[in-house]
Amino acid sequence: MRKLLFLLLPLFCLSQDLKLDHSYTNEADFEVGDTITIKFNTIQVTENVNPNLYIFDYEYNNKLLEKIEHRWKVTDNESNSNAQVSLNHWDGYSFSPISDYEDKNLSDQYSYGWVGRSDSYPTSSDWSVERITIQDGVGITYNNTLVEVDFKIKDKINTDYSDYSNVTNLNWMRAEDNSTSTLYDVEAMQEKITLQGVEGGDAGSVTINLKTENDKPTHYKYDIFQSGSSVTNGYFDANSQAIVTGLENDVEYTIDIKVDDELASDWLDDVATVTDVFLVFKEAIGAGSSPGGTTNTFTHSIQFLLGEVNNSGNVDFDDSYVLLSHIMNENISEWFTSSTNGSKNVWGEKTQYGYSTNDYYFGQKKHFTPTDSNKVFDFGHGLIGDVDFSHSFEPISQETEPKAQVVRNNTENLDLDISTSLVNGKVEMIVNIEKEDIAGMQFIIEYDKSILEFEEVKFNTGNLLTNFASERENKIYFGSISVENNENIKVGEPYKIVFNPKQTITNTAGLVYFKTTDAVTDTGKKIILKIK
Amino acid sequence: MKKLFILLLFISCTTEVYDEQPILEIPESLFIQEPSGLKLENYVVQDKVRINTKLSSDGEYRIKIIDFTNTVVSQEIIQGKQGDNILNIYVNSLPVSSYTVELYTKNNIFVGRQNFSMK
């Protein structure tokens, strides 16, 4: 007998007369702001069970859903058109199911979890409770919707929720034949509702990282567009970052990243220097027009974009002369970065930047889409004319491009001795070099024009070199380049700059400021000059 | 006795050769106690600032102006004389910033260091 009791016990425990279900009626393709409709209905399990009183509680997460309205549907049913209905509402509570019974056992949760249990509804600001009461003189029909509730899907930003996995719960239910006071066993069909893949919503703080070799990230500005309209804009910070708000998840944006020409006026002429001239010359001598050849100097495809400075479509001698003219202080093209032309910007998502596809010319992928799991985006930025990447992001080398070499790391340091002296009433600035394989050097110096007057640059560089010197305002541009690559700059004192003092001076300290220096070896290696 | 007096007077008037050093007036603000060193008259500078480069011996010395990235942005080689040398640092060609002035021998042996900031 005892064994029989144990055998039957699971059957008793599993007994149920009906089920309460709730589910959404919409297509499961939700976005923040969408309206969803949740319907409640009962399903008959046991025959001849005809309750005419339903009381049940459900709760919804008010951080994730905003209730709009409810509609009674039970009275649309001819059999229950005279039913009395009621809906009560409380904010700030959540049901605490009694642990002795399964959560889905709604009738037991009613009898033991709620009735007479003072701690059944502890406060919880995230939840709102609604109590549905339906009473009729006849049995309430099954399978017909009792009530529909409309909710608006809220953005989970600024909540503690990472998803919409639990937006509603069935708490308990009393189903009774009121004429005989017979309580029926009720089980939840779908106890809680999960909204999968809710898209959109405020993306919160989105981080845009600017990738550039330039040490002036605050001179770069961004503008973010959606469907051609600007959503937000601003400047990058000293950490090369922009923390952007006001974007939505799962929306594709386009970003413009450009140098503020006004802020950058002091360094735009430093972008294209003698190293760039030399590299473009070498590329032109190689006569290659693509990075696939064996005579190329360029090691990244994007150098063909950065070195194409006359808008001809190819990198050739004309481009090198444009850049040579630039460092000789003559601006003969408007298609590259200089203080006269302003910045000519190239940018793209970091991993795509530099790698052309049918969609992205030289990898200039300017789109990004914030999602729940991705709110950080890196964009490489380059400047036309800067083939040595001195002020530009060098593309990440990919395994599919074995030829790609790291240009920025292919450099060499060189101590340089530059000094001024007062000699026979004149101020002389002398550059002293001891390295033999230098094929190009460039200097930009500034001087105190209220005290000094520029007289001349004396070259002692070699016979086959192209020397240049020019003055603009209080700056002097001078240097040399071995155009045909036949001779290097002579060691010793290749440059002497002479000034006449306009007034009596005791000495020269501070009268000349060494602004920019650049040099390149005859093999095209960039030299980082350090004045000792 | 009279002859003796004249003789003594003659002896006392005999010219003695002294190696005369020009006396340089060193302002208190530029006075350096040590045998060598560098001192600036002011540390907040506009246009120019006087400096004292006190040297232990005659010779060529380097005055380096170094920016906050430790890059030499201006350098002068002076013909220094033993003792105090009152010179100037001209700052109008420098970007407004804070700089370090360092004094070295021609062969880059350190002598002194000071800082200044521009207004």
* Greatest contact between two chains: A-B, 25 and 25 residues
Helicity range of chain A: under 10%
What structural category do the secondary elements of chain A indicate? mainly beta
User: Regions of chain A with pLDDT < 50 over 5+ consecutive residues?
Assistant: 1-13, 287-293
Major sheet characteristics of chain B:
5 strands, mixed
Average pLDDT number of chain B: 84
* Cα-to-Cα separation, first versus last residue of chain A: 103 Å
**Class from secondary-structure proportions of chain B:** mainly beta
Order of helices and strands of chain B: HEEEEEEEE
- Average pLDDT of chain A works out at 89
Biggest beta sheet summary of chain A:
9 strands, mixed
| Helical stretch tally of chain B | 1
Uncertain spans of chain B: 7-19
Distance between the termini of chain B: 75 Å
Number of strands of chain A: 28
What is the helical fraction of chain B, as a range of percent? under 10%
Oligomer: heterodimer
Strand content of chain B: 35-45%
- Write out the strand line-up for the largest beta sheet of chain B, numbering strands in chain order: 2-8-7-4-5
Inertia-based shape of chain A: rod-shaped
